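Thread title: Can someone regenerate the structure for this chain?

I was given the following input by a collaborator and told the matching structure tokens would be attached. They weren't. Posting the sequence so someone can regenerate them.
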Amino acid sequence: MKVLGAALLLCFVVFCAFQLPTDTLCKTIRTGRFHSYRAGTGAHTIILRTDSLQLEIRPASKDTTFWKISWLSNCRFAAEYISGPGPRNEAELQRYRNTVLFYNIREITKDYYVGTTTVRGADGSNSYLTDTTWLRAR
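Best answer:
Regenerated them for you:
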């Protein structure tokens, strides 16, 4: 029984040791300028984030999309569409406005962070995307 207790304690300590640094580091990327590159095409998006607003600027087209940001924890936020290119008609605009993106930051390095986005549709469906966001332009 003592061995089991010691093993559980060791697992807990190891788990906490790996979780706390990421949680603490997440505070450093709540705001700032970041860069994303579309897989396959390499299309560049500049992300400007304050504590409650995120702008996604596409330099090639000069389009900007605005998102309302709500932090759920140090490493997790929800994003709701405010305005920008994308919706082609009123029905599509309503779908954008009724969809919430949940972003979970999983790993942070000195050059980038990796996160998983859960797209929660108005119909309750979920889709997932894992992507890398860079701290500096590549």
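The helical segments are 2-26, 90-97.
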